[in-house]
1-aminocyclopropane-1-carboxylate synthase (Nicotiana sylvestris), 478 residues
Amino acid sequence: MDSDRRDCHLNMLSKMAMCKSHGQDSSYFIGWQEYEKNPYHPIQNPSGIIQMGLAENQLSFDLLESWLTRNQDVIQFRENGGSMFRDLALFQDYHGLQAFKNVLVSFMGEIRRRKVKFDPEKLVLTAGSTSANETLIFCLAEPGEALLLPTPYYPGFDRDLKWRTGAEIVPIHCYSSNNFRITESALEDAYEEAQRLNLRVKGVFITNPSNPLGTTMSRDELNNLITFAMAKNIHIVSDEIYAGTVFDSPKFISIMEALIDRKHEKSKMWSQVHIVSSLSKDLGLPGFRIGMIYSNNETLIAAATKMSSFGLISSQTQYLLSKILGDKKFIKRYIKENKKGLKKRREMLVSGLENSGIECLKSNAGLFCFVDMRHLLNSNTFEAEMELWRKILLSDVGLNVSPGSSCHCSEPGWFRICFANIAEETLDLAMQRINDFVSSMNLQRRQLIAAASASSSRRRTLANWVVKLSSGEGKTYR
Ligand SMILES: Cc1ncc(COP(=O)(O)O)c(C=O)c1O
């Protein structure tokens, strides 16, 4: 009996409940557990671990909080002098509140520079994009069918796309030599690999802007992708939950915008392109569990709407957000201020790391940077990456960062570092700790080199002496 089946048998639980493909033993989640055991606090635990492995956006809470202070009626469910409490408490329709869907599509359009007009009838509400992604895969793939994903990718996808659906992920390998761009040959290679593994490919799944890269996809990349998906007759899913975090050029191009601009191909791919979105990152509200699927495929929308009854957004959350998003003036200001804050934070991280001789991949979006620490590895291997990660997390530095291998990066030595979930002073301290660590590593390396060169010069002296001795010169010493 294999170990999975033995576990099920012993615990009298289902195979699904005991299945290990959830991915919680990844270093990504282990880092969080280590942080929980010893969290940094400026006064109570100043030597604790600083959490830089969490893609959370806490930079614009003051704006949301001041909106709530100004709109007390909303929190008390009061509208036009009456109470909404009963209506909200009793509301059970899994299609969601119409008013909420209306403002959501307008928000989606706003953060995509109004290049796409979204229709509330093509939207499915889900409890976060975790649920949206899983629901989509349930709709698109049978167990054992495959999705192609560019590397590096968000570690949670192993859980969200594979665990309960039984679908498989085949990596599209991307490399730092071209800033991890998705090439035509990488797409073809992944497709061939799936065929070699006897897996039927149902789609390509992209994250744009990318987690962990913090970059947006170029128009060429999106066009290649559309051409590829059309040739293979497969779906494209675009997880765009960081669309509202694009703080620098180039501008964000949604897959829908790219498709609309491909006038000849548009009709062929129209019902095969799907977007996932959420308010977890753009508004910094992961605890509210607001996610959505958007698609032009009516059959898919009908199926996903039925499935959404397993993960609905509570009606009081929908109500609150319909009011916040409905305040267009506030939302415009929020988006602008939020991007400004993110850009400033990114610059702080980049220049702090530069002081320690560490470079970041050039990025323009997201809540993190993809950081190049290849020169700090003892060897060009994933083992050396884990060794460095353990040092940074546990022994020397006390920072929880995510190793590239947890994001299935194809090259060792890259780390994702988040910058929007901690206070500015904590970020400064983190940079100081990195600086001390790199300085002490450099010192150790210099000492090792000096010791090695001293020992090789001793060996040379000895060798010279032996040569002299054997050539007769040494006889004078007898
Ligand atoms: C690319 C990506 N998709 C989905 C999620 C899950 O987000 P949510 O909180 O909306 O479920 C995350 C969270 O980090 C993410 O980075």
About this structure: Residues 474-478 have pLDDT under 50 and may be disordered. The pocket of pyridoxal-5'-phosphate is lined by residues 55, 128-130, 154, 156, 207, 211, 239, 241, 278, 280, 286, 291 (CB under 6 Å).
